[in-house]
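Quick one: structure tokens for this chain, please?
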Amino acid sequence: MVHNTQVMVYLRHPNIVTVMGAVVQKTAEPLMVMENMKHGSLFDLLHNTTMRFDGDMLMTMLDDIVSGMNYLHSTSPPVLHNDLKTGNVLVGANFQVRNSAYPAGPLLPYRVGCCCSVACCCVRCCGALLLLLLA
């Protein structure tokens, strides 16, 4: 976790939740300090019966998610999220979405052979997420 935090504090993008640091104590689990996202997770928002989303808003949210994933995949070395789902996408005050919940294990660079390309990996993740948004 310490290595992940050291990497993540330097990741800066409008569609990636800002990680400010971590609290590490010998007697407790490490805690990551992240920016506050007013509306919580996209999962919770989509399952809130009082909220209604039109197609334009959902497409804007999907565009934000893809933009954040593209940024992660374009870093050197590329960072793969490995757990993209609506519960790991947080929604801010203006309904801008940001990817969060980085993997607990070591951040592994993209490995040749795990997919045809980093872009293909992003399309697979975001295509699955689009199905969740439109369901």
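Strands lie at 19-23, 31-34, 89-91, 97-99.
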